[in-house]
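Write out the bound-state structure for nicotinamide-adenine-dinucleotide.
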Amino acid sequence: MIKINENTKLVVLTGAGISAESGLKTFRDSDGLWENYPVTDVATPEAYQRNPAMVWRFYKERWKQARQAHPNPGHEALARLETWLGQNFSLITQNVDGLHTRAGNSRVIEMHGSLENALCLSCNSRSPMDSINLDPDIPACPKCGASLRPDIVWFGEMPYRMQEIDALLQACDVFMVVGTSGVVYPAAGFVMTASYLGAKTLAVNLEAGEMPHFVDEFHQGKAGEVLPRIVENWMEA
Ligand code: NAD
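---
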């Protein structure tokens, strides 16, 4: 089994699977749909151009749903890892639900944005969702009055903080991927890149599937059960 200590540079990548036990559906659960919506209707810039009110309805609902959810033992295990490893720990998430931050992680890169914020199409400023008037079909920027969009990276857009992510992949000793199907790029390529650059790699997933050769260690099971065991093991060694 891969071992780590206080000096190990660890990077963790999470996907929708880690939030499944908090009651938030993954894409996979719903056959490529996100809460019954085809992603092309709600998660592309074209969808927003076609029907911004419908896209806003969808994300207002997702935001409310995420706020009602609670971090689960999988999120909490990653928060313990950060407390233990400090600056040697980094978390990259594809999730937009904010549960990692609520579990206590602060070294988090939300590469696909966050349901917690809206972005102004004119002045580019970010506003917390709970600070804006959500009654209009298309909410307005509190700073300049222009239309807001959800602060979500849609298909076809560049994920956030890619340079930082690149540096993390180059520098890490161990790379762990949790609850992601590995179909959404560029995140799907991170584990391979980290492995080729010399990191040891491990994956945690409910389904065994076919593990690529660049995953050194695979742990099958629910993230909320498997992660606490892995972390306990590491911290006790
Ligand atoms: P995905 O839905 O494509 O894959 C989820 C993966 O998690 C699957 O491989 C599944 O086997 C695994 N899984 C399911 N339950 C699990 C559990 N309890 N423990 C461990 N693994 C489990 O998700 P993805 O790869 O993250 O890609 C989906 C995209 O959709 C992401 O870009 C994300 O931004 C977005 N999304 C986010 C949320 C969220 O923020 N919670 C929810 C749905 C979709």
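---
The chain has eight helices and eleven strands.
Residues 15-17, 19-21, 24, 26-28, 34, 94-97, 112, 179-181, 183-184, 204-207, 222-223 surround nicotinamide-adenine-dinucleotide (CB under 6 Å).
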